[in-house]
Amino acid sequence: MRAVHFDTFAQTPAVTQVEAPEPPPHGVVITVEATGLCRSDWHAWAGHDGTVTLPHVPGHEFVGTVARTGAEVTAYAPGDRVTAPFVSGCGACEFCASGNAQVCPDQTQPGFTHWGSWAEEVVIHHADVNLVRVPEQLPAEAVVSLGCRFATAFRGLHARAQLREGEVVAVFGCGGVGLSAVMIAAAMGAHVIAVDINQGALDLALRMGAADAVNTTGRSEAEAATAVRAAAAAQGVEHGPHVTVEALGLPVTMNTALASLQPLGRHVQIGLFAEAPLTAVPAVIGREIAFLGSHGMSAADYPPLLDLVASGRLRPQDLVTRTLSLEETPDALVAMNEGTLPGLTVIRP
């Protein structure tokens, strides 16, 4: 099969022929209909993820059709249209049993722990507990980002922060996952403040449901936090947002988000850091801020998210700004060294 393949970190990958996979006894091989280009793929390629071994094929969010199944798979069959969360649980540990496969100690991740979906086929382990059926009527562009960005943002807002209708949420970083958070929060009835230094990304966030936008270009952390609190006040909340989401993975945006929160506020950290950040711990303690991580979502928790998409209240496909062939993907990955383009990029193998 054709795949994007690299054998050295941070060097331009190549599209080449590699051996087609066979399913493990508990897993499946899926023919990839579409897959995504995500900042996490860049982290894996750049060598920031210790689970990645070389040579490697990236890609962790996708939609496709089951092609072959292992002997132990009972819930899925060839021809089923599916997606999967980027974290696959083992299905047997205490965390999987409690419905928290996204933190399974024995998790696998396509595109990280094994070869991913920037290929014509991809393997998912423990398929019976990790696959999600996808309605045939949904376009691939509405589904492909549900494996990572929309799932992570949805769990962060819905389950971790327990965002309520009418609350104010500030989303820091309006790339793919940040814009996902903007759309989900708006669909949940929140007032959303988008925060970024890229005016194009902020304009897109406003089109996707943000009530206000704050451009922090040239502002210090304190100045940016003051501007976000002022935007919250314009929404009728005096002491800052109820919830902040950091979707970029930079210490400056994380600390600005924490500084802008009201007392007893909830901070959701989604962005991945290239190195360990310094955190404004005294502010977290003094204002009793809840610092919450969101690391994907278990397959069992997908129905409410899929219901939002199927109903049309949430339209991930509206975020797609670019579609690439497999051959165009290596250069697009390398270009992420200079930053991330607004919107979502879909790859069609």
Automatic annotation (TrEMBL):
<dbReference type="InterPro" id="IPR013149">
    <property type="entry name" value="ADH-like_C"/>
</dbReference>
<dbReference type="InterPro" id="IPR050129">
    <property type="entry name" value="Zn_alcohol_dh"/>
</dbReference>
<protein>
    <submittedName>
        <fullName>Zinc-dependent alcohol dehydrogenase family protein</fullName>
    </submittedName>
</protein>
<comment type="similarity">
    <text>Belongs to the zinc-containing alcohol dehydrogenase family.</text>
</comment>
<keyword id="KW-0479">Metal-binding</keyword>
<dbReference type="Pfam" id="PF08240">
    <property type="entry name" value="ADH_N"/>
</dbReference>
<dbReference type="InterPro" id="IPR020843">
    <property type="entry name" value="ER"/>
</dbReference>
<dbReference type="InterPro" id="IPR013154">
    <property type="entry name" value="ADH-like_N"/>
</dbReference>
<dbReference type="Pfam" id="PF00107">
    <property type="entry name" value="ADH_zinc_N"/>
</dbReference>
<dbReference type="InterPro" id="IPR011032">
    <property type="entry name" value="GroES-like_sf"/>
</dbReference>
<feature type="domain" description="Enoyl reductase (ER)">
    <location>
        <begin position="8"/>
        <end position="347"/>
    </location>
</feature>
<dbReference type="InterPro" id="IPR036291">
    <property type="entry name" value="NAD(P)-bd_dom_sf"/>
</dbReference>
<keyword id="KW-0862">Zinc</keyword>
<dbReference type="InterPro" id="IPR002328">
    <property type="entry name" value="ADH_Zn_CS"/>
</dbReference>
<keyword id="KW-0560">Oxidoreductase</keyword>
